[in-house]
User: What shape does this take?
Amino acid sequence: MDKILVQGGRKLKGEVRVSGSKNAALPILASALLCDGANTYTNVPMLRDIKSTLELLSHLGVRCEKQEHAVQVDASTLNNHDAPYDLVRKMRASILVLGPLLARLKKARVSLPGGCAIGARPINLHLKGLVSLGADIKLDHGYVEASCDRLKGADIYFDMVTVTGTENLMMAAVLAEGRTVLHNAAREPEIVALANALNQMGANITGAGTSEISIEGVESLKPIALDIIPDRIETGTIMTAAALTNGDVTILGAQPEHVQSIIDKLRLAGAQIDIYNDETIRIQGREIIKSVDLKTLPYPGFPTDMQAQFMVLMSVAKGSCLISETIFENRFIHVSELRRMGADITVSGNVALIKGVSTLSGAPVMATDLRASACLVLAGLVAENTTEVNRVYHLDRGYESLELKLESLGAAIQRVKG
Ligand code: EPZ
Assistant: This one.
């Protein structure tokens, strides 16, 4: 298994281009199941999760071709409705094929994704919505067995905001008969990106980006060419690294409006942040980082996927702060590793108290999930001596060559092939 070695103490300086969004690309790749013909996607990030999704689509009989950041997906040859455990277990977002398979083939057999390090992550709201559209759902031996005639539009109420739940139901409804309205829908930019893709394919969706999304069913969809939006979590991660190291970094190809809540918190922590020509963000750190309380919330609130990274910044800030994680029930796993590096963090339920310390000390640490691995790399940037981050396959699921991007900004960082 690869590991990453980071020598702390360098200020990040220079320019870096952010990659395409993992969490936009995954549902958009699944949406290719909804039509015959070749969909061409560009600015697709080169990640393990993208590779896993293309493996699953190929298993379903779909033709997938990938050249670097360009991907072509043609579901004309779709001939299998079974998404097996050994593929789904690699990536829980595989559940995003459920809605499209039902819409297209009127049947689907998809392994239940199971929990993961950050929480149980059930899919009950996905299934409840599909039943509202007329699907027959059975759970059998760890699989969702779903079937239907043509799905019929309905009013669907989400008991809680779910990103992939909203995406699954939007894709199930685009070919349904009549109107579907999703109430208490997720508002993330990735939802808007998916709705834009579906509308370009010929769907009729309005309200994406608000908590009420209407979908008028259509008879069929056609293939498209589409550029994937930039990754707002990678953008926030690099911004935080710049603030953490008192650096001066310019991020190219970003979408500032997608990271407003992150910009707000980093400014409160003392960073100077300027936006140019609506796709360039410059972050200048300050010697003194101020402690800032934080609560994670559904978009447009502060994203849970940035909580661990922001916690690193707060662990070397001047003062104390509280970080509340309201989305997942177990998303403080990174705390124990940060403590081993000298951070002063106390956890009580879903709230962490962070008392800033003057410095962290480098140590061998273990990544446990995608964003925790990013947080440990960031901690290494400011820790004394060397930090060795193990199990970086977690990192590779959601960041395209993060260590190369940070090295290009002056970090003393290297990957050791294992
Ligand atoms: C998406 O996961 C993202 N993944 C996650 O990013 C992100 O952390 C999360 O949204 C929240 O923003 C992708 O988009 C591929 P949810 P998702 O359904 O859709 C509960 C990353 O690091 N819930 O919005 O699985 C659930 O347990 C990943 O890139 C139910 O109870 O998250 C959680 O507590 C990690 N029943 C809350 O809702 C359901 O049926 C939000 O989950 C669905 C969700």
